[in-house]
Amino acid sequence: MKLTSRLSLLCWLVTSVIASDGTNENDKEIDVELLHSQVPEPLTINNFDETLKEGFNMVEFFSPYCPHCVNLFPTWANFYLNNEKLTNDNKKYNIYQVDCVMSGDLCEREGIHYYPMIRFYGPDSRLLASMTDSVRTIDTLTEFADDQLLTWNEDFIETDDTSLKIQQVYSSNRLLDNSELMRIIEGENQVPYLITFWPTTFDQLNDKNFQNKVSQHVMFKHFESLFEFRSILNLTIKKMKKFIEDDNLRFGYFNCLSSKEICKELGLSNLITGSINDNTYPKAILYLPKDTGGNAIKFNANIGFHKGINLAAKSLSNWIESTLINSELRDMKFNEIKNFIGGTVKLEQKGRISEFTDYSKVAIIQVNDPTTKSYEDDIILEHLIQPIANLNNDVFLFKTTDNEIVERFLLQQEKNLANSYIHPGGKIDESIEDNELQFNEKMYISRTHTSYPYYICLKAGTLYTPVFQTYGSEDSRSVNKVVEFIKKNYLPAVTHLTLETEKTLFPNTFGKMFNDKNEKVIIALTDFQPKQFFDVEYFLSYVYHKFTFLNNHNLFNKLEEKRATKHEKVAKMKKKDASSDDIIDALREKIDINFSSIENNVHAAYIDIKNWKSIVKHMNWTNIKISDYGVGDVLIVERFGGRYWDHDVSGKKITIDNEEQCLKSLEAATFKNLKSKNLKDASFFTFLLYYGAALVLFLFGFRYYKQWSQSKKHYNEKMKGLGLLGLTPEFEESKFD
């Protein structure tokens, strides 16, 4: 056996004792010595660059003294062997290792800071990405490699000598000096500019070294977050290539450490401290020309949150594209907007869905009367671009003066929803006398009546469009009130719940102005097989629509009750000959019920069963037993409260096979008539902390009470026999003796 293999085997035997927790019987049967004989010798500084000169390569940097590396080795070896079984035509990348004990100089050159570090290299040993997923199985390793191939394969083209070269599209991103930046900030640019601000100096980052290999760039070598952001930016530039070629977008970058005052004025003080860590990422700002408002729109999303640079670049490029669209603010035909978003007045019944629905797009539309619109109505739209950009969803901003077409669209949606979609088979049950589940014109008017300009929230794949009700221009021109309406309604009707979207459905913070503690998310598990997924899609859509309609119907009933009480009060006042002023005041009393309310809101989501385990783990839902759930199962989860329901009132499991079962369970959960479960187990430490704090408060209170009692007793003893003024009374005879 080779010397390095023997050393690795010895280290494995030693460290396997240290890292033996969780090892099963199958792990103990692995012939590690055989596996070591089947993988190639680790690369060294002498052959690393030559070996990685061509094609794509996956490399693990490890230490034989690292328990995690030792435990990973059998998986890595089998990953390598699986790849070697492929023919040359099917093998897209090669797999290697580097022993950082034997080749410390190479690991130092490559900026390896921990073990194991898994990296993906392109031609000429060019580092393309590092694996950030802590779960390392053959599947996740393969997924990472395939993701990189999908990301970078188009960036390389074959030349006559069959070597691969990087396209020069990235050269469009150039360093900006102070005067250029100030001109762009002032809106003098004719084209939108995406500028990234870096915690670097001119010497550290410039056009000569921006695209250098990691080993040749001191900043990228030592700061993984900066290298990662460069990769994200490069991929974003590639995705926006068409915009660049048509000169509809330009890219630039700026060194904050060389111009600290400018960056400080821009609110980028964290980039001028000179301190860089793993969470330090450059900031991106999209500067719009004066003729499109001259706004500076900040990308405020956490770019480091995404799993892999491909998803991060997709997030940034989608944000750029949607913000550019939102900044146009031209008067559009409503049908053009509707077709872009995927708005509809009809949905298919159960068993008739044959195509996947893209629910992701949502539009905030300002609807105006062409005869009364004013310049002030456009100004508020410019102030809505940044709040919408902060949502980091596919939310678009439009305006239209097709007011009559919009009103016909809303009416048709409501009729089809109430008279068809929420009824099994698409027909109202005629046997039910006075069936309230049908179109009610009075309720529809109460929900949509408003004044111009008003806003609607048009969503893809739904028959329900929220309306921002306003009875005066002061409301429709209030940025805060419009933003509140947007934040209440911007979520799609149905969401694909992934690690990237979980913060949208389950945010860390509760906004009391636009969130309700009783909001719930219906989650269905799917395997994405067409028939099964179409059933999931119908189930979620049906439950979402019917519960929303019932919720609005409940609000309408409350409104009617308050109106009746108000009219009854006025009638009594008239009988008592109350003054006309008092009667008018009573009639003017506002009934505080708004159909934009988020009370009892419900959201719908589906999870790929393959990702179920990782999502539960990521969400820290420790009380959920993953193996108890399968394809077609349903959970009702509180968005903010930390509770969930998976059985109905009779104890049966909630599934997609019975929409009415879920609706009744949702109603029971909403009105506290169904027993819930906790999503998370309180840890023993939390238990001790909670009850320890209670004990401390009790002891403190008891001690205070004891001191107060003693003090009072002492005071009473002291005052015994004294008069009201604290003086000894003169016991003289009085006239009462």
Would you write up a description of this structure?
The chain crosses the membrane at residues 684-705. Residues 23-150 form the Thioredoxin domain. It comes from Pichia kluyveri. This protein folds into five domains: 3-162, Glutaredoxin (3-Layer(aba) Sandwich); 169-325, Glutaredoxin, CATH 3.40.30.10; 334-492, Glutaredoxin (3-Layer(aba) Sandwich); 505-554 and 569-681, Glutaredoxin (3-Layer(aba) Sandwich); 690-737. The chain is α/β, with parallel strands linked by helices. Helices cover 42% and strands 14% of the residues. It contains 25 helices and 21 strands. The strands form five sheets. A six-stranded mixed beta sheet has the order 16-18-17-19-20-21, covered by helices on one side.
> Largest sheet, described in full?
6 strands, mixed
Radius of gyration, taken over Cα atoms and rounded to an integer in Å: 33 Å
Number of strands: 21
Q: Give the helix level as a range of percent.
A: 40-55%
CATH topology of the largest domain: Glutaredoxin
Q: Please give the CATH architecture of the largest domain.
A: 3-Layer(aba) Sandwich
Domain tally: 5
